[in-house]
């Protein structure tokens, strides 16, 4: 199998590399590293800067940041990607149907979405997870639902634009059913927007999980997640900035990788970016 | 022009390069010509010929589009002496742009800033270049608007661009270009986006201004008919190179280069079909294969019967988006198309010709009226049955870049109707698609390509192949050749006529281009404000037009013959009134006088 041309650019390679590396960490770090290394407290080395013993420094309880960031990857990535996947699964059909059907269907669905949009996403997630109870699965559901309206709105707009393109009308007169029109003609043409929005959503989902954790509704201490680590660092920013920089860099690298990966994926799906085949 | 007159512009060996992904791409090379003071030089060519790049280089604006002048001299005789534009610094260029060289762009919609009033946009340049005070600049702006003959100039100054019609906007753009009395006016396709009557107005305006002020005009266009009407001298360009240069009469009467000859052969000329009964394929140079003319069957048999078709679009407004008014797009239109016949609907933008075509297919739902296709009532069909009825009528759209799905291989797009209507199965589909590609003269290797890998004309052939796949009885061609270059347009027109001659398919040919319509149609209907104002055989409508609007339209069409200049000095056609009416407005029915057998003219005069 050959990699599509868009992935063979330096940006595409870097994107793939980062995404693969982070996925690898999320999968194998908990296997290789004993779970208690992330929670073991070293009281003599609290808020220690990077040293030989603690290469990335320690937090206020003397826990090793390197192990915490490696072991926190799984939680953060799992919650963020599951939540974004969920928002796509709900938001994509919602937006497509709304944009394609128009009229009453569109009005009803979009007023529903607008109602959800009226609440700040984090507040919404907070309410949902408070009602459902604090555990991993409910955190995913809460973030997933909170992110759905944004995606649905964007997809509706794109579907609306694409649905009135002449090629969709031509396909309609070519005898395609509504379902085929949506799946074969509209969906591929809105995928670029979905991909771009999803990669952005992933970054926000990681941070949303942090917010929930901070309020005691996401990941439960002493387990590590990137968001929780960033939240915990805020009291020590002046004395120990590495406590924020280490998880912050992990989030930034993930987002950077995902964005570059997303761009390459979008280009790979676009026949216009390939030569004659 | 006398030889000892110093040229205003002398372009010598111009070369412009663009930065491509794999090294520089040459946009223009080896282009040399001069413009004398007070003359109109037309640069003509098809898309990609480098005509716009050349004109933008003269303003050094080409750099804003990623291009770079890498060779040659661009001498311009400014008030301060001769300058080489290619090497001038930014301060010199700022002093020349807008002051000594004025420019008009193609799209009057986008060349004015929507958030400023006309006064603000006009006085800006005056204050900067002429150092006028606010009051003096205002007075000068008013004077300029009067010079371009805009009605009610005082009121226009306070208005925003969206409040003006397309023709008036282009007049404002011209007034702005004229503001500092430039020595050279560059007009880059200034009438391409305009209706034919407005085009005639703008051309006559440019002609008059040129004569009154003695400025030279560099006129960029793709339209040979416009060239014939306005040019003193002509430069023909093709693929970044200069092909031929000469006085306009010589270029049209005895072109020296094959390319010029081919270009001229592809242009339909209004009036050249006089006395012929059937449509006639264009004679293309280099493609001598005789295309059969589509003759009518002996016994005419009606295929499509449209009666009292009315389509209105609601205008929504207010908080709960109630309907506050109606756009009367199509108003009581009736006509018949016989089997194997082409009926053309002509008119200017907004006259309802496209809405009419869409209403017949029910892509836009008509408000009332009946449409019978082969005795089958289209309006009464359920969504399911309508889908089945589309087997008999297909549409070819205007923009070949938008009418094919960019994410789908061409084979799939042409195969879709075959599968959906159950016309072919399995390997048969592939054979039928291959046959269709042969039919529209496209290589079979294109079947596995994506739309972006084809040129505009090739894409339009694919769109025609897709429409033909179901063997329809009627094809509605909505401005199907308008977006194509003339030589490609001629090929696609010939293809349509060939298909009609061989398959007996009927066409509803919707177009704004009178010369093209004259070439392809058996019968012609002229639309104005949603109504059919005149309908008859092609000879009747073109040779004995009876309705005032038909005559106006015909008089405005530029003719591709420099010895027949129809563009007068000062044309001012009445703008088309708005088709928006309050709720409950019920206009009277369309009543016609039959002035000759089959030649109907709407009774009331233009209101």
TrEMBL record, chain A:
Places the protein is found: Cell membrane
Gene3D superfamilies, per the entry: MetI-like
Matches recorded under SUPFAM superfamilies: MetI-like
Sequence intervals crossing the membrane: 12-33, 77-100, 112-132, 138-155, 190-208, 242-262
A Pfam match: BPD_transp_1
Domain of life assignment: Bacteria
Gene Ontology CC: one annotated term: plasma membrane
Entry keywords, A to Z: Cell membrane, Membrane, Transmembrane, Transmembrane helix, Transport
Membrane topology category: Multi-pass membrane protein
Residue ranges of every copy of the ABC transmembrane type-1 domain listed in the record: 73-262
GO biological process terms, semicolon-separated: transmembrane transport
Family: Belongs to the binding-protein-dependent transport system permease family.
Protein's name according to its UniProt entry: ABC transporter permease
Species per Swiss-Prot/TrEMBL record: Antarcticimicrobium luteum
Lineage: Bacteria, Pseudomonadati, Pseudomonadota, Alphaproteobacteria, Rhodobacterales
TrEMBL record, chain B:
InterPro entries to which the protein is assigned, alphabetical: AAA+_ATPase, ABC_Ni/Peptide_Import, ABC_transporter-like_ATP-bd, ABC_transporter-like_CS, Oligopep_ABC_C, P-loop_NTPase
Pfam (any one): oligo_HPY
The keyword Transport is assigned to this record: yes
Topological category with respect to the lipid bilayer: Peripheral membrane protein
One Gene Ontology cellular component: plasma membrane
Single biological process term from Gene Ontology: peptide transport
Domain ABC transporter stretches: 9-264, 304-554
Domain of life according to the entry: Bacteria
Compartments in which it is found: Cell inner membrane
Assigned keywords, A-Z: ATP-binding, Cell membrane, Membrane, Nucleotide-binding, Transport
The protein, known as: ABC transporter ATP-binding protein
Organism: Antarcticimicrobium luteum
């Amino acid at each position: 199998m050959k990699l599509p041309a868009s992935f063979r650019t330096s940006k595409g390679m870097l994107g793939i590399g980062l995404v693969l590396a982070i996925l690898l960490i999320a999968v194998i770090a908990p296997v290789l590293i004993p779970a208690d290394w992330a929670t073991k407290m070293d009281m003599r080395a609290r808020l220690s800067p990077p040293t030989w013993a603690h290469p990335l420094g320690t937090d206020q309880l003397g826990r090793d940041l390197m192990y915490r960031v490696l072991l926190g990857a799984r939680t953060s990535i799992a919650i963020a990607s599951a939540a974004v996947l969920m928002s796509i699964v709900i938001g994509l059909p919602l937006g497509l149907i709304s944009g394609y059907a128009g009229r009453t269907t569109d009005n009803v669905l979009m007023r529903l979405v607008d109602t959800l949009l009226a609440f700040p996403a984090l507040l919404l997630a907070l309410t949902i997870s408070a009602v459902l109870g604090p555990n991993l699965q409910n955190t995913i559901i809460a973030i997933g639902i909170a992110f759905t309206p944004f995606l649905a709105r964007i997809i509706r707009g794109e579907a609306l634009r694409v649905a009135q393109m002449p090629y969709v009308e031509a396909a309609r007169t070519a005898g395609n059913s509504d379902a085929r029109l949506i799946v074969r003609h509209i969906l591929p043409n809105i995928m670029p927007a979905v991909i771009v929005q999803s990669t952005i959503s992933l970054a926000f989902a990681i941070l949303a999980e942090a917010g929930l954790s901070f309020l005691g509704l996401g990941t439960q201490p002493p387990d590590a997640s990137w968001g929780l680590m960033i939240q915990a660092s805020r009291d020590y920013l002046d004395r120990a900035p590495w406590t924020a920089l280490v998880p912050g860099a992990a989030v930034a690298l993930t987002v950077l990788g995902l964005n570059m990966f997303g761009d390459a994926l979008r280009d790979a799906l676009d026949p216009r970016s390939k030569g004659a085949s | 022009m006398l030889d000892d007159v110093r040229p205003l512009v002398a372009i010598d060996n111009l070369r412009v390069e663009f930065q491509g992904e794999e090294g520089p791409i040459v946009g223009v090379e080896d282009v040399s010509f001069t413009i004398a003071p007070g003359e109109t030089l037309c640069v003509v060519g098809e898309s990609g010929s480098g005509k716009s790049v050349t004109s933008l280089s003269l303003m050094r604006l080409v750099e804003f589009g990623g291009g770079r002048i890498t060779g040659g001299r661009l001498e311009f005789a400014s008030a301060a002496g001769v300058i080489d534009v290619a090497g001038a610094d930014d301060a010199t260029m700022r002093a020349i742009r807008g002051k000594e060289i004025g420019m008009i762009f193609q799209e009057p919609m986008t060349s004015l800033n929507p958030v400023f009033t006309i006064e603000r946009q006009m006085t800006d340049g005056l204050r900067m270049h002429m150092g006028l005070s606010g009051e003096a600049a205002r007075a000068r702006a008013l004077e300029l608007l009067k010079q371009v003959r805009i009605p009610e100039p005082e009121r226009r100054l306070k208005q925003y661009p969206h409040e003006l019609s397309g023709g008036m906007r282009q007049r404002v753009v011209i007034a702005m270009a004229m503001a500092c009395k430039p020595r050279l006016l560059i007009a880059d396709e200034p009438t391409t986006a305009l209706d034919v009557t407005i085009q005639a107005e703008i051309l006559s305006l440019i002609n008059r201004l040129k004569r009154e002020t003695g400025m030279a005009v560099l006129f960029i266009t793709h339209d040979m008919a416009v060239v014939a009407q306005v040019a003193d001298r002509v430069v023909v360009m093709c693929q970044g190179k200069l092909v031929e240069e000469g006085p306009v009469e010589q270029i049209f009467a005895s072109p020296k280069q094959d390319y010029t000859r081919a270009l001229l052969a592809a242009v339909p000329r209004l009036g050249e079909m006089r006395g012929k009964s059937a449509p006639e394929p264009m004679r293309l140079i280099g493609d001598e294969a005789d295309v059969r003319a589509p003759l009518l069957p002996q016994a005419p048999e009606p295929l499509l019967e449209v009666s009292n078709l009315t389509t209105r679009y609601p205008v929504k407004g207010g908080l709960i988006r109630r309907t506050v008014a109606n756009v009367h797009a199509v108003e009581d239109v009736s006509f018949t198309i016989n089997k194997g016949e082409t009926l053309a609907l002509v008119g200017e933008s907004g006259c309802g010709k496209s809405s009419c075509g869409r209403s017949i297919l029910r892509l836009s739902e008509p408000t009332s009226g009946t449409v019978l296709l082969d005795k089958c009532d289209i309006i009464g069909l359920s969504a399911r049955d309508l889908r089945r009825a589309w087997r008999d009528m297909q549409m070819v759209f205007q923009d070949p870049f938008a009418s094919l799905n960019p994410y789908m291989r061409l084979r799939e797009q042409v195969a879709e109707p075959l599968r959906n209507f159950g016309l072919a199965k399995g390997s048969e589909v592939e054979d039928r698609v291959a046959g269709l590609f042969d039919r529209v003269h496209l290589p079979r290797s294109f079947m596995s390509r994506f739309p972006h890998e084809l040129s505009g004309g090739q894409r339009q052939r694919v769109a025609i192949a897709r429409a033909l796949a179901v063997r329809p009885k009627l094809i509605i061609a909505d401005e199907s050749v308008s977006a194509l270059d003339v030589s490609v347009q001629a090929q696609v027109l010939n293809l349509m006529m060939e298909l009609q001659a061989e398959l007996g398919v009927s066409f509803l040919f919707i177009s704004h281009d009178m010369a093209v319509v004259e070439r392809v149609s058996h019968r012609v209907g002229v639309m104005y404000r949603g109504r059919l104002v005149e309908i008859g055989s092609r000879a009747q409508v073109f040779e004995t037009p009876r309705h005032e609007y038909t005559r106006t339209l015909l008089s405005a069409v530029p003719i591709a013959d420099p010895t027949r200049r129809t563009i007068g000095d000062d044309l001012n056609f009445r703008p088309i009134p708005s088709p928006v009416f309050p709720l409950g407005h019920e206009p009277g029915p369309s009543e016609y006088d039959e002035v000759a057998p089959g030649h109907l003219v709407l009774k009331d005069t233009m209101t």
